[in-house]
Design goal:
alpha+beta, single chain, 211 residues, rod-shaped, 16% helix, four-stranded antiparallel beta sheet
């Protein structure tokens, strides 16, 4: 393929890459292919510049860094009382003990530490409910779930005598309240507890603040 072309002004041959005719000095028009290549290059450069300008303010939140997404749910603040299936549950106290009971027949030492949780239930349903210590679990900040200690609970209730209300398969009629203790044996280094509770054996699970 020839690398020469005729000047449209003086008709003499000049190089196709020449911008000015060396014979008559007239500026030569750029070929269509060259125009297309230069135009495409300019378009690509423009896209790169726009992308760089628009990407500087983005924040990566994939691993918890930066600001929260606009639709992220707000953290729920737990309270010491709540409603489970029309049964009001209130955490009255939360104590740590190395042992419970007060004599050789009703004393129980903890393997870790006892968390003695006192709660009051008020039945606002239309019929009686059955309450039991199995309706309660203690959950720590590692999401470990602890069930009540039946031996420790028996020792505590025996020591309290008439002051204790047992939560062992007890019927609670509408409009009445019952208060009792649930004893959990947990590791000594466990922390950050919440109480998972049900209003009766078939009540909806709720979570309550204990500390």
């Amino acid at each position: 393929m020839s690398k020469l072309q005729a000047c449209k002004t003086c008709s003499k041959e000049v190089a196709k890459t020449a911008k000015v005719c060396p014979h008559c000095g007239v500026k030569l028009k750029m070929g269509f292919l060259k125009k297309a290549i230069l135009g495409l290059a300019g378009f690509i450069i423009l896209i790169v510049v726009i992308a760089n300008l628009g990407g500087g303010d983005k924040t990566d939140t994939s691993n918890g860094g930066g600001s929260k997404p606009a639709n992220a749910p707000a953290a729920v603040e737990l309270a010491k009382e709540g409603i489970s299936s029309d049964v009001k549950i209130v955490v009255d106290s939360f104590e740590s003990k190395d042992q419970v009971g007060n004599n050789q027949f009703s004393t129980k030492k903890a393997q870790g530490v006892f968390k003695v949780t006192k709660v009051t239930l008020t039945n606002n349903q239309k019929d009686a409910i059955t309450i039991d210590s199995n309706s309660f679990k203690l959950i720590d900040d590692q999401k470990r779930e602890f069930s009540y200690s039946s031996e420790a609970q028996f020792a505590l209730e025996s020591s309290l005598g008439d002051k204790s209300e047992s939560f062992f398969l007890k019927k609670l009629n509408p409009g009445l309240s019952a208060t009792g203790h649930i004893v959990f044996d947990v590791p000594a280094d466990a922390k950050g507890f919440i109480l998972e509770a049900r209003g009766g054996l078939t009540g909806k699970k709720i979570q309550l603040k204990v500390e």
